[in-house]
Amino acid sequence: MFERFTRDAREVVQGAVEHGRREGLRSVGAEHLLLALLDREASRASFALAALGLADRKESVREALEGARRRAGLSRAEADALAGLGIDVTEVVARVEEVHGAGAMSGDHRERGWWSGRRSFGRDAKGVLEGALRAALDRRDRHIGDEHILLALTVRAGVPAEVLADHGVTYESVRRVLYGRGTAQAG
């Protein structure tokens, strides 16, 4: 599938792997794809994010992703559902971190001992990449670009979509900026 990726999309995937490596994680998640998109400049996705006002709020997105990681990757909707069952996620995180240290509930195995060193893609990241393929096919685009990865992030349920929506970036707003039907159009 990666042979169909544009240079920008490949760089997003490589950037996601690098984010995972820097965090010392063995697998790449959807949030790493979002972080890699935030790092991009002069691409279709970076244009869309800038047009939607996210260029000035990248740090806010990073902080929101970090907060979700500390909650074991639970979205706000999942935390609210647990609260409905009487489980206070904030309290659980505080108690676990009190015993095991900050970030103990990050949800991935940190590098410990021997392993091949090759990072795999988690189910959520694979789902985003598959969604990017579907987005490209829906548009009859020959290649998968970083804009397709962004579109896929906005529709796949989970923390990245929630964080993007909280910052005003939705499927419809991205589509409008990229393909018209609004005031701004990607070039």
Task: Walk me through the topology.
Elements: H1 7-22, E1 27-28, H2 30-39, H3 44-51, H4 58-70, H5 76-84, H6 89-100, E2 120-121, H7 123-138, H8 146-155, H9 159-166, H10 171-179
Parallel strand pairs: 1-2
Q: Which features would summarize this protein structure in a list?
A:
187 residues, mainly alpha, Double Clp-N motif, 10 helices
Short account of what is shown:
By secondary structure, this protein is mostly helical. The protein has helices at residues 7-22, 30-39, 44-51, 58-70, 76-84, 89-100, 123-138, 146-155, 159-166, 171-179, and strands at 27-28, 120-121. It has a single domain, classed as Double Clp-N motif (Orthogonal Bundle).
Overall description:
This protein is an all-alpha fold and 187 residues long. The chain has one domain (2-73, 120-179): Clp, N-terminal domain (Double Clp-N motif), CATH 1.10.1780. The protein has ten helices and two strands; from the N terminus they run αβαααααβαααα. It has helices at residues 7-22, 30-39, 44-51, 58-70, 76-84, 89-100, 123-138, 146-155, 159-166, 171-179; strands spanning 27-28, 120-121. The protein has a two-stranded parallel ribbon. The longest helix is centred in the N-terminal third of the chain and has 16 residues, at 7-22.
Number of domains: 1
**Strand tally, please?**
2
Shape type: globular
SSE sequence, one letter per element = HEHHHHHEHHHH
Largest sheet: 2 strands, parallel
Helix content: 55-70%
CATH topology: Double Clp-N motif
Number of helices: 10
Rg from Cα: 17 Å
